[in-house]
């Protein structure tokens, strides 16, 4: 048996930041080499960031990415670095289908990519570029649209000689399928599969990955080193959670979730197969001295903690990577704004978060006090800006236009829009980004006001249903208690009935079903793509199903106008769900 020392470089890369990403990768390569690693694996498309989307249609961007890779390779240490990037699909460098086959593999629309590109794992080491391995399976579902930009890899599977072991290289989707590229690499003699990944987070994703990886171990008999991207990119969050599995499927090393890490571990594998390709300066590199590196297995996160960490990571990186240092949050004294404020503080610090309380004639004294208490506990500055003067002034302006004083829904939405104007004025004056406070239950059913509570630059809990909002708030309070801190969210916020407080004695239950009944239907209809008929067949009340599905369908035009927000489910309102606004497919069960 051979032993190969592997470093998994779990990195937070930024789309388009070619120099910055290259610096991150090179530092990881050098740090790993200093720790005696024979092999270092960086995430999928680490050099360009994931997903680069239509940046790949810019010839200049692709040329700059190639130049960045060449510079990185020239500075690479003696260990083998496997680095995700994009390259022109040149058969001399990466084995892909030829240009004549492009139309067959460019996606369901038959579109030929602007340039023939491959999503590759580049092989660098000892100051040179040794080649690249192209991704063979291109996902085109959920948030993935890779057939729009890439051609799939082809040709014979090849293994590499590293530290007296045969190493196979694969990219993300290539290990998600049975009898696919992973099996081909095992047949070619691989004892270790190293896999570059950019696998976005949603609840339960780590469990899914582990199940798939164990299936591949069982199928191939290979150990697997799986490195994943970490950090936020627009609405996507990458959780890291990189893993090394031995040839029995046992997890022998695991990186922490939602933070950068270099995971170093010694992996026993069979001696090299004679077919393994020799890499000059890498395959013949002197073996490192010293004892085996102890395996590190990071403790898994509690399921609710996992979601909270995803919200913090996504918010932090969206603000940081887009140049926002400060955030402003409307504090109503309700549970949604309390959670958003807590996440914002944990993401960027209390001194960078401003709370604004904007009570109206209908705001209860308790809610105003709850908002102030929340701000005190979080340590953020809170400013009161009562909206009654603007509310009364708008009524005078609108009376000759609409023929009466605003009332009913018109008056409720007017209050929300006044608050939106105040928030955006503060944003313009201070440069702070407005964080919206609408949750997925409200957004799904249209229980939001366009140009009102939907106004803002980032929707922190856009993919969090109301029942989960309460669960996250309670988890955050419990977490504070465990560390000896004061729970940030007042208990009064968690026990009072939810209300928008836009009319006397208003409750959410006046307009929506109880969230305990609503959320399961929403999850099945939105995330599970069930029809109304299927929901009724599953046992849900027919009248309730008809009501909820009709609300969801009618609000599609609103959702198209919302800011991006953190994705924490398998189907969020964004890249995942692309339904027509004009749509006469009936929501009623038949």
Largest sheet: 6 strands, mixed
Strand content: 15-25%
> What is the CATH class designation of the largest domain?
Alpha Beta
Distance between the termini: 64 Å
* Uncertain stretches: 92-113
List keywords for this structure.
36% helix, alpha/beta, 2 domains, 590 residues, Rossmann fold, Nitrilase/N-carbamoyl-D-aminoacid amidohydrolase, 6-stranded mixed beta sheet
Structural description of this entry:
The protein is of the alpha/beta class and 590 residues long. It has 2 domains: 279 residues, Nitrilase/N-carbamoyl-D-aminoacid amidohydrolase (4-Layer Sandwich); 256 residues, HUPs (Rossmann fold, 3-Layer(aba) Sandwich). It contains 17 helices and 19 strands. The strands form 4 sheets. Strands 5-4-3-2-1-14 form a 6-stranded mixed beta sheet. Strand 18, helix 11 and strand 19 form a beta-alpha-beta unit. Helix 6 crosses helix 7 and helix 7 packs parallel to helix 8. The longest helix is centred in the last third of the chain and has 23 residues. The chain starts with a strand and ends in a 31-residue tail after the last helix. The relative contact order is 0.09. About 4% of the residues have low confidence.
């Amino acid at each position: 048996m051979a032993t190969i020392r592997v470093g998994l470089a779990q990195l937070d890369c930024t789309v388009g930041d070619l120099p910055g990403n290259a610096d991150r990768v090179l530092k990881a390569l050098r740090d790993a080499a200093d720790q005696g690693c024979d092999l270092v694996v960086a995430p999928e498309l680490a050099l360009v960031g994931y997903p680069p989307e239509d940046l790949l249609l810019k010839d200049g961007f692709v040329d700059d990415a190639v130049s960045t890779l060449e510079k990185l390779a020239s500075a690479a240490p003696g260990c083998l670095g496997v680095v995700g990037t994009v390259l022109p699909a040149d058969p001399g460098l990466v084995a892909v289908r030829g240009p004549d086959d492009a139309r067959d593999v460019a996606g369901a629309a038959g579109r030929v990519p602007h340039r023939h590109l491959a999503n590759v794992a580049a092989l660098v080491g000892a100051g040179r570029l040794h080649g690249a391995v192209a991704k063979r399976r291109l996902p085109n579902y959920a948030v993935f649209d890779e057939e729009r930009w890439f051609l799939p890899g082809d040709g014979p599977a090849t293994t590499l000689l590293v530290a007296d072991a045969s190493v196979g290289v694969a990219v993300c989707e290539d290990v998600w399928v049975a009898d696919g590229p992973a099996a081909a690499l095992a047949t070619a003699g691989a004892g270790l599969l190293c896999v570059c990944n950019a696998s976005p987070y949603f609840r339960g994703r780590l469990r899914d990955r582990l199940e798939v990886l164990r299936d591949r171990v069982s199928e191939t008999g290979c150990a697997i080193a799986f490195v994943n991207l970490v950090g936020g990119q627009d609405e996507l969050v990458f959780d890291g959670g990189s893993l090394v599995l031995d040839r029995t499927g046992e997890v022998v090393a695991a990186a922490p979730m939602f933070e950068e890490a270099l995971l170093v571990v010694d992996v026993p594998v069979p001696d090299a197969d004679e077919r393994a390709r020799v890499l000059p300066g890498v395959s013949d590199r002197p073996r490192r001295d010293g004892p085996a590196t102890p395996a590190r297995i990071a403790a898994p996160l509690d399921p609710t903690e996992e979601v909270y960490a995803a919200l913090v990571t996504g918010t932090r990186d969206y603000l940081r990577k887009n140049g926002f240092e400060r955030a402003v949050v409307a504090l109503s004294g309700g549970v949604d704004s309390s959670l958003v404020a807590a996440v914002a503080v944990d993401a960027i610090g209390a001194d960078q978060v401003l709370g604004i309380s904007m009570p109206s004639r209908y705001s209860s004294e308790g809610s105003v006090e709850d908002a102030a208490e929340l701000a005190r506990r979080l340590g953020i500055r809170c400013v009161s800006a009562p909206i009654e003067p603007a509310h009364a002034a708008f009524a005078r302006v609108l009376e000759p236009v609409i023929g009466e004083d605003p009332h009913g829904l018109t008056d409720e939405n007017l209050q929300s829009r006044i608050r939106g104007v105040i928030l955006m004025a503060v944003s313009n004056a201070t440069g702070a980004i407005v964080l919206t406070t609408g949750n997925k239950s409200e957004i799904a059913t249209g229980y939001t006001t366009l140009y009102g509570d939907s106004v803002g630059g980032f929707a922190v809990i856009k993919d969090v249903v109301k029942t989960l909002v309460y669960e996250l708030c309670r988890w955050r309070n419990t977490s504070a208690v465990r560390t000896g801190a004061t729970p940030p969210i007042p208990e009064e916020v968690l026990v009072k009935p939810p209300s928008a407080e836009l009319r006397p004695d208003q409750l959410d239950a006046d307009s929506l079903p109880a969230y305990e009944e609503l959320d399961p239907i929403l999850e099945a209809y939105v995330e599970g793509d069930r029809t109304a008929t299927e929901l009724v067949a599953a046992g849900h009340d027919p009248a309730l199903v008809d009501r909820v599905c009709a609300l969801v369908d009618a609000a599609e035009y609103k959702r198209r106008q919302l800011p991006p927000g953190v994705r924490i489910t398998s189907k969020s309102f964004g890249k995942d769900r692309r339904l027509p606004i004009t749509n006469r497919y009936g929501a009623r069960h038949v």
